[in-house]
Amino acid sequence: MPSALYHLRSGASSRWAVRRDGAWSVLEHGLADLLALPLAEARAVLDAAPPAGPLDVVGTLPPVDRQEVWAAGVTYQRSREGRKEESAGAGSLYDLVYSSDRPEIFFKASPWRVVGDGDSVGIRADSAWDVPEAELGLVVNAAGEIFGYTLGNDMSSRSIEGENPLYLPQAKIYDRSCALGPAIVPAWEAGPGPFDLEVEVRRDGAPAYSGATSTAALARGLDELVGWLYRALRFPAGAVLLTGTGVVPGADFTVRPGDTVVISSPALGTLSNPVVSVGRSAPSEAAS
Q: Radius of gyration over alpha carbons of the chain, in Å?
């Protein structure tokens, strides 16, 4: 894995540091400060960070501080098929989204709702059909330049969204529904891609589901998606944009509490999260 920017938990505090050739270089400022700079200046800050001595690293935190997370949907043919599969009577809607000039872009998470590598992702207690969505995350600066890449998991309720497309916010936005990590690989380190992505759901110590995709199958360009997000929105501290998933389990599979979702990429590392149930079940379910 190339040099990467980590959000570290160190004692009772946190700090941002670059992992380069097996050694740490600690930064004086946070991610929001870097993303407020033009890309060339941010790169100079990372390159100039001096090597640090031994660090008391307890673990890693999600690679965000003040960045909202947004997401693009129906950007792969498999995602279009999956949305049509789950939606009674609304399949043609996703054909239109897939082929239209304007992409589907939606809000996913406030920074404080994002979980990192090793932390728990959630499935809603009032949902019967839930899946992880392994995605490439774009870390974008205030000027709309792609600063770097990270792995993302857009946890989703297929039963809620399938019931009615207008329920998309409830299917996508809830506690522990977004995981990012383990780090940010700067764009100049990772190159332009494409990026290979794999996802595995482990249950009772064994694989229960696995799949793979590549961003080469994206129907839209990365800069195109960023351009639509920034068309009428400002992000002074930068933003993270998830680019959609090309891996969607079939209707016979749902994630369960106790599973572990592992998303990996040779260029970006591995993001691993155990699954828990969040929220309350529906009133009718609770009474039965």
A: 19
Cβ burial of 156 (10 Å; 0-12, 13-18, 19+) is buried
User: What is the 3-state composition of the chain as percent helix, strand, coil, each rounded to the nearest 5?
Assistant: 25, 35, 40
Nearest-angstrom CA–CA distance, 179 and 60: 13
Strands 68-73 and 104-109: antiparallel
- Tell me the average pLDDT across 240-244: 97
**Cα–Cα dist 49/113, whole Å:** 29
**Secondary structure element (H or E) that encloses residue 283, with its range:** helix 283-287
Q: Is the pLDDT of residue 48 over 60?
A: yes
Q: Rounded to an integer, what distance in angstroms lies between the CA atom of residue 113 and that of residue 4?
A: 23
Confidence of residue 288 (pLDDT cuts 50, 70, 90): very low
Question: What is the SS3 assignment for 39-85?
Answer: HHHHHHHHHHCCECCCCCCCEEECCCCCCEEEEEECCCHHHHHHHHH
Q: Does residue 49 contact residue 4 with C-beta atoms inside 8 Å?
A: no
Whole-number pLDDT of residue 80: 58
Least reliable range by pLDDT among 34-38, 41-45, 87-91, 132-136: 87-91
Rounded to two decimals, the pTM is: 0.93
Spatial neighbors of 174 by CB under 8 A, at least 6 apart, are: 122, 124, 278, 279
Residues 178 and 283 sit within 8 Å (Cβ to Cβ) = no
Please list the alpha-helical segments (H only) found in 100-248. Answer: 158-163, 168-172, 187-190, 222-229
